[in-house]
Design a protein that fits this description.
Blueprint (H helix, E strand, L loop, with lengths): L6 H21 L8 H12 L5 H8 L3 H13 L3 E5 L7 E5 L1 H22 L4 H17 L6
Antiparallel strand pairs: 1-2
Helix pairs in contact: 2-5, 3-4
Length: 146
């Protein structure tokens, strides 16, 4: 028998769980020495090596001056570097340093280990249900036309 569920009720149950999950995953970054926001920027730069500060700001939804400050801090920490484009000397892009790649790998490893340890607490049926929900959860993040 098909059960009709209320999206608002589901959202009210899901939202606090996602917030707690996000909070804990961010805590796992402390020993690595970066914040959640810095991890997100490092990932974005790794995914689009050579991206400029302005494009990164647009992608992340912040102002260019604010992003420039964030990038300055990452650069001072030795995690990213600014590189001049070989095609257009006026253009400066961003790329991860070896240390930035190492920090990002450590962050991912710590977060995955924390989450895997919690998933091991579930019985087989619960784990299968979580896994089955992944495609639907991914669809929640898809952009929708306005």
């Amino acid at each position: 028998m098909l059960t009709i569920t209320d999206p608002v009720k589901t959202a009210n149950g899901l939202r606090p769980l996602l917030l707690k999950l996000n909070r804990q995953l961010r805590r796992e970054l402390g020993p690595v020495g970066i914040t959640g926001g810095q991890a997100a920027l490092l990932h974005a730069i790794r995914s689009t090596s050579g991206i400029g500060v302005r494009a990164l700001a647009t992608q992340e939804g912040v102002s260019a001056p604010a992003m420039s400050g964030y990038v300055d801090r990452l650069e001072a920490a030795g995690l990213v570097r600014r590189v001049r484009s070989s095609e257009d000397r006026r253009r400066v892009g961003l790329e991860l340093t070896d240390e930035g790649r190492s920090v990002l790998r450590s962050a991912r490893s710590r977060r995955t280990a924390w989450l895997a340890a919690r998933l091991k607490r579930l019985d087989e049926q619960e784990l299968a249900r979580v896994e089955a929900a992944l495609p639907a959860l991914a669809r929640l993040l898809e952009e929708t036309p306005e």
